[in-house]
């Protein structure tokens, strides 16, 4: 239904210049609220153009874009020559997103800390490294908890801890009911987590059918064994949305299976619930579709 969509494209086409070649044409796409959508395609096929149309940065040459909610966008190339410091730019963008100045500065500081860039808060954007600039670009999109988050190669240039933090932020957004659309050159990015995957081919957008093969390796999951208050259900919205399997054992232990990007938030909800849950073990697993045996490493907590 229309009210379940974050944004909808009907018969959308885009070309540059009168009589120019169509980059996209006849695109019909609805992004459901709370969904994670991956866009694939070869270089130059129109992936970035599609994201810019979804974000409202470009207008379609034909067709209609409707239903767009509060949207934030991370571009493929961040304009780092802007006349701001990192904290000044993020505070400004927080105000653009509708936050009060104090709240915008606080959220800016929090996101710089989460991405390991707090030490660059007062550094001019023009003096930041590529990686630090990318952290600022991602932080500006996450400041105000957007309904629709659009990421164009947003992981590129980030160090490993920041990439993991962005994975967690994506999981948080979808668990909270936001929608995320992303392009990334790494085929394993959020593997097994996306609700839908589309491919841009020959100016058209096609829903890709996910077909398991004998060599397919699914994205890592986390098995959490925990003991909670008697009769208690899952303690928070992230856990309720993210948990794939939920089963009990005769000794009162609850076993939860969670995609790895969601695991930190699920564990946090378990441990901060009132009364808290007791986490017994946490095991990361990778499953081969042709062999149910799991390669795993567990940590006793």
UniProtKB/TrEMBL annotation:
- Which SMART domains is this protein grouped with? AAA
One Pfam family cited in the UniProt record for this chain: ABC_tran
Limits of the ABC transporter domain: 7-227
> Which GO MF terms does the UniProt record name?
ATP binding
Q: Which SUPFAM superfamilies match?
A: P-loop containing nucleoside triphosphate hydrolases
Sorted alphabetically, the keyword list is:
ATP-binding, Nucleotide-binding, Transport
Q: Which Gene3D superfamilies match?
A: P-loop containing nucleotide triphosphate hydrolases
* KW Transport (keyword) present: yes
Q: What is this protein called?
A: ABC transporter ATP-binding protein
Species in which this protein is naturally found: Streptomyces atriruber
């Amino acid at each position: 239904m229309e009210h379940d969509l974050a944004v909808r494209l009907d018969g959308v086409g885009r070309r540059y210049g009168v009589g120019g070649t169509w980059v996209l044409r006849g695109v019909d796409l609805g992004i459901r609220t709370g969904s994670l959508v991956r866009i694939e395609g070869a270089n130059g096929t129109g992936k970035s153009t599609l994201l810019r149309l979804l974000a409202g940065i470009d207008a379609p040459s034909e067709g209609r874009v409707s239903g767009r909610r509060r949207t934030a966008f991370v571009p493929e190339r961040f304009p780092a020559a802007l006349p701001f410091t990192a904290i000044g730019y993020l505070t400004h963008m927080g105000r653009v997103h509708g936050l009060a100045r104090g709240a915008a500065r606080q959220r800016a500081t929090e996101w710089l800390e989460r991405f390991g860039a707090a030490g660059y808060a007062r550094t001019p954007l023009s003096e930041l490294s590529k990686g630090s600039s990318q952290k600022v670009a991602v932080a500006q999109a996450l400041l105000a908890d957007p309904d629709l988050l659009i990421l164009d190669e947003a992981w590129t240039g980030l160090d490993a801890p920041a990439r993991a933090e962005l994975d967690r932020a994506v999981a948080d957004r979808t668990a909270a009911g936001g929608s995320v659309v992303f392009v990334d050159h790494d085929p394993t990015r959020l593997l097994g987590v996306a609700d839908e995957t589309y491919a841009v081919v020959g100016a058209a957008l096609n829903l890709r059918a996910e077909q398991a093969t004998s060599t397919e390796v699914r994205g890592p999951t986390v098995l959490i064994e925990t003991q909670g208050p008697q009769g208690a259900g899952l303690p928070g919205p992230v856990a309720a949305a993210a948990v794939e399997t939920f089963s009990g054992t005769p000794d009162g232990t609850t076993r939860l299976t969670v995609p790895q990007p969601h695991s930190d938030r699920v564990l946090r909800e378990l441990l901060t619930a009132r009364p808290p849950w007791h986490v017994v073990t946490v095991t990361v697993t990778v499953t081969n579709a042709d062999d149910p045996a799991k390669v795993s490493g567990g940590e006793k907590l």
